[in-house]
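# nightly structure sweep
# worker-07 picked up a monomer target from the shared queue
# config: single-sequence mode, recycle default, output format = structure tokens
# input follows
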Amino acid sequence: MTLRTHHWIAIVLGFSGIALGVLVPGGPIETRSFSHIDPITLGAFNTFLTSLVLGSLLLVYFVLKLERWAIIGTAVCGLSFLGVYGLDLAHIFPVSPDAMPPALLAIEILGTIVSLPLIVLTIQAFRGEGQEQLAATSSTPSTTLTFDLLQRFTVLGITLIGLAIIAFATRSAMGL
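# output follows
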């Protein structure tokens, strides 16, 4: 079995999402304090990071389904990963008076490196340089009541998980 471009995109995207996800403030890796940053700014940044992680993990499914919009979304995620890691590694934002732990530094360097092939692979897939044919339009949603309810509960569940992560990360980063 050979892996096609969309399989590689899904693997790299999933890895990138998980790698960023383990860096939640208050967890075992991100131990720096950001209590000097405005809580609104920190909350907005944590909302962006949480959306990037959860969105990346959700996109894996749609990339495997060869949805064209998911490839575009993946390119945006790849650029976002590169930007987030680059800003932190360059000590631009978020800046902490605490030193960056070695594990955090290693994951951020690896995440930066991995974001580059993710961007290249998505460009290749979008240009049609992979072996697979991307769907020209998104698939039509099912109109059955069961599927619609499942979608709604899934979105609600992911939203609640996201809000819990944002609240935890923001409180932890503020030292509360």
